[in-house]
């Protein structure tokens, strides 16, 4: 039975491409000379890069014109404007984690901008959905693919989980440390650990794997400086040792639930999710130890 558990308070972009994620989300990547992805893990200054899309880009069915831009800002840098129309040039040999392929190259101006900003040769590329696919690890979900996100198209976290963590921290951290693309409120802390199937609007999302966290949550997103928290606190109560004592120990910490999404067959409904949409929990496990991780 559908159980109203929470409501949506934030998402990165509203149109849902049921397969690869929200429209415009994780479509771009900054790569080094050899085409390898930079991330905040090695280039924390990327935390200070801000992006802005035109408001219309969030409406369903909107297509960019010649004067539609992705605007990119960073401290000490001029505004960089990237046309939202597809660039013509292809870069071969782009790689992120286990995937490699070709991508669309955003050109020399973008390359110069990131090269100046990071102080090392860089290019900016866009996922080329017309020629490439990057499947999600079939061990966790079969038949889904992503663009340049780490591993899954969606990561959901709840405000309750963050509030609970912040009760234990001397200095509270904001949600941008965890960067979910779906943020929900109104549920118990860490309920999302248990969710294996939820419904938002006409979309059915499957919880496929607890999100194990790397170094990025320790990087302050306003200063790009890394510190010991929230890792140290999460090690005390969100580690595999605590949550999954009977499973193989890998010294991991968890925050959030990775998800994939299936569009259900409701006809005539917009392919969007909106702030305020209710979350219905259709299936769940009873403890975090039972969740896939
Ligand atoms: C988190 O803390 C543990 C224990 O201090 C340490 O072994 C681990 O490397 C840290 N992880 C990150 C991502 O900083």
Give a structural overview.
The chain has 293 residues and is mainly β. It folds into 2 domains: 3-17 and 137-290, Beta Barrel (M1 Pyruvate Kinase, Domain 3), CATH 2.40.33; 28-126, no CATH class. Helix content is 11%, strand content 32%. It is built from 4 helices and 18 strands. The protein has helices spanning 108-118, 159-168, 231-237, 240-243; strands spanning 3-11, 16-17, 21-22, 28-32, 50-52, 69-73, 80-83, 90-96, 99-105, 122-126, 134-135, 145-146, 154-158, 182-185, 195-200, 203-212, 254-263, 278-284. The strands form 5 sheets. The protein has a 7-stranded mixed barrel. Strands 4-10-9-8 form a 4-stranded antiparallel sheet. The protein is globular. The two termini are 25 Å apart. 35% of the residues are buried. The model has no long low-confidence stretch (mean pLDDT 92). 2-acetamido-2-deoxy-beta-D-glucopyranose binds next to helix 3. InterPro entries: MoCF_Sase_C, MOCOS_middle, Pyrv_Knase-like_insert_dom_sf. One of its GO terms (molecular function) is pyridoxal phosphate binding. Keywords: Signal. Residues 119-282 form the MOSC domain. It comes from Gossypium gossypioides.
Task: Give a quick set of tags describing it.
four-stranded antiparallel beta sheet; mainly beta; binds 2-acetamido-2-deoxy-beta-D-glucopyranose; 32% strand; 4 helices; 293 residues; globular
